[in-house]
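Internal QA ticket QA-208
Title: Verify multi-chain structure generation after dependency bump
Assignee: T.L.

Test input:
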Amino acid sequence: MEAVRVPKEDLHRFCVEAFGKVGVPKEEAKIVAEHLVEASLRGVDSHGVIRVPYYIEGIKKGLVNAKSSISIVKETPVSALLDGGNGLGEVVAKKAMEIAIEKAKTSGVGLAGAKNLGHVGMLAYYTKRVAENKLIGFAFANGPALVAPWGGAERVFGTNPLSYAFPTKNKPIVLDVATSATAHFKIKVAMIRGEELAPGLALDKDGNPTTDPTKAFEGILLPFGAHKGYGFSLLVTLMTVPLIDGTFDKDVVLHASTQGGFFVMAINPTLFREYEEFIEDIQRVVDTIKSTKPAKGFKEVLLPGEIEERVAEERAKKGIPIDLEVWKSFEELSEEYGVELPKPL
Amino acid sequence: MEAVRVPKEDLHRFCVEAFGKVGVPKEEAKIVAEHLVEASLRGVDSHGVIRVPYYIEGIKKGLVNAKSSISIVKETPVSALLDGGNGLGEVVAKKAMEIAIEKAKTSGVGLAGAKNLGHVGMLAYYTKRVAENKLIGFAFANGPALVAPWGGAERVFGTNPLSYAFPTKNKPIVLDVATSATAHFKIKVAMIRGEELAPGLALDKDGNPTTDPTKAFEGILLPFGAHKGYGFSLLVTLMTVPLIDGTFDKDVVLHASTQGGFFVMAINPTLFREYEEFIEDIQRVVDTIKSTKPAKGFKEVLLPGEIEERVAEERAKKGIPIDLEVWKSFEELSEEYGVELPKPL
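Actual output:
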């Protein structure tokens, strides 16, 4: 796919200005822009700046509010429940993350839930920051129903990502995965490109397995890893709906600006050991994995998050590629709101 | 496979007496017996009474001690780290679970790690009890290295199970899964029966994909769900080794009586909501899943743990089937130690 490359700073400026035009307060626009640019920088394009026009559309349609109004519904020394007042998800979820970090530093563990909020972006954003605070991070978010429970032929769960991050001596280990076998977005790309899907990813709307992307797009996604992955789809829903009164997957409007509930947890390893001992032993695990002989067809063994770190380094130097279709949506925003486009490199 | 059916009470008596003969104190023998009989009752035969002769062998070989000596290494209002003195895993892990439950009741959350302990059995045993206390339970345990990281061709991780449980109005939802694509034990069964393995489960010792159970048994297991499942294999190791100073997978002796570290967490849902509201919303998720239209080839959609509950009901009535090979090992124990065999039904 052809793309325009832009520097991250100017992309950030463009996002902040565009959000400002639809009433997002500057401080909140900066948080969302930082998040989306970071996702694009790390190569997580589906959760990056591609979302800017959708978030703006979501605000205009009233699916999400331009201005968040965060209130703390319930709080203890180890926990907090936030109501986001249906504000932009990145703003509300970041606040929840900050509270979880603070509580884990003082009480050893911090759990924070957030309900009534828009799309929270890339979960790795939150868990990585928890890990950068010398804590272990977990995050869960449910979304609009697209995925069947194992053995079922109806949309019950969102693609329901979960993430964890552990600090290391260098960059944190960061896993961030959808619990669906594939993303709805990737099926759309296959549809546009006329490519067949791999088997085991989706059912058609009548519940028959399909590799036809058009049928899959109208149909039902499958969880990753069969019945085991279904257990994780369900886990995300349980942590973000009944536990914190988040919106149930089936009730979340299907739009790129929406989310159900968000849950973040921070665990302080010093509850159990000296931090230095913990990090030494993490390093041993890391070194063992990195020195593992590659299997046939693989060049090396990667840690979760390693690819994203490499892409981020490359894109920081060469600029962030914006697909032409996304660039076109930026041009439309530029025209409609009089925001200057990012300058291509 | 042919089997002898025995009542659970008499099976329990047999286990307690057999463990007693090798120096396990009665109270500890009762805990281990209760655990193994419960696993067999629920149909989790690989973690049930089949282990009795192996645990006894482990004690005789000095891999695990007949008598546990549990000490608390570090403790806070939300956490505890236990050293099990290399006692039988079920005894030590149960103690950790009780502490996590107690702390979650008083502090809202309880995290407990246990190091230096034998095989902990079936993780569902612990999380189910956490859920029966109106709490959300998580458990992790690492074991002897058998599983490659995704893209690797060496044994790095144990089959590393993880489990969660949530209370409901009726029986808890209990997920308990190995993070490997299959169990080492199941490959052995395929080898004995001369059956080919499904693809994607294992590599031979040189790192080539194989469906030959003999090659797979000497070779390397794969994680479930490709790179995503690898993330969960790694998570279990990180939670049970660097976090709590547990034995690294590669250092755990490969024997049916051994384990690395064990970690259990209990979260009190009342940190966030009234318990009744939480349970109402759990019920909505349960009802939605159970009323989902089945996919082609499925009769119904099951909740995690539902099969095990059904098997347990059936076996409570009809007795627990003991495979003839396992029965033979019981006869040998009976002869060697003068313990009366369970009476077949």
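Spot checks passed. Chain B has a mean pLDDT of 97.
Status: verified.
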